[in-house]
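Review form for a predicted model. The reviewer records the input and the model, then writes brief findings.
Reviewer: anonymous (R2)
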Amino acid sequence: MKVIFLGTGTSCGVPTIGCQCHTCTSPDPHDKRLRCSALVETETTRLLIDCGPDFRQQIMPQPFRKIDGILITHAHYDHMGGMDDIRPYCQFGEINVYADPLARQGMLEMLPYCFAENRYPGVPAIQLHEIHKHEAFRIGDFNIMPIEVMHHDLPILGYRIEEVESQESEVNSQSSALSPQPSLVYITDMKTISDEELSYIEGTDVLVVNALREKPHHSHQTVSEAVHFARRVGARQTWLIHSSHDIGRHAEVNAQLPPDIQLAFDGQIIEVI
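Model under review:
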């Protein structure tokens, strides 16, 4: 399983328009952060997590191949504002989009022309699937478990994604079929999480979670809160995303973090094994 961080920034991106702070004026490309999104891929299955307003720019450097499913975390514009730009991928067939009831309603309101009875030719062909926390589903090579976290007082979804073996490999290797499969947990925009949800996260190999800045915020984790959460989860490696310019420069922040908890950056590729 491969994860490509398409964007690791907050809703304003980094640099922030009009800002001349230490981070926004950094010459380091690691300090250029588009809005949060990620690809999760195997050779035969490709998932997109969120589709924000920077999607076109983010996807252009990537190979053009089918997107098997889009997982939406919540209905805020920085996570859904690029949905119209999926049109070129409709040549592979309808785009399957998975969202909870609130995000599903948000998409119907944001893109009414995609769901009209008489659709305008050329609009994105979207098959919208309503999903719910703790109700697992499968897309290609991945088993997906939606997890609920709180974005202030708004319930949103995170995802635990596990790569599953092919039927052929399960038949040929009993020991391999019994072994745990690589797993990723992806959470963005979280402020709090209930103890009930931790049972769906524990034991994951890789944790991706939001860390806005060090100063407290009403609806996002701070860096310290994210580190504390990562320690509770106990993942082998944690990558921090959804970071604002207030977090500081990438290299300086990572130098202060433990090696197993680091800021991700746009364009970074990691393997979950």
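Findings: DSSP finds eight helices and 14 strands in the chain.
Further findings: The two ends are 7 Å apart (CA to CA).
Recommendation: see findings above.
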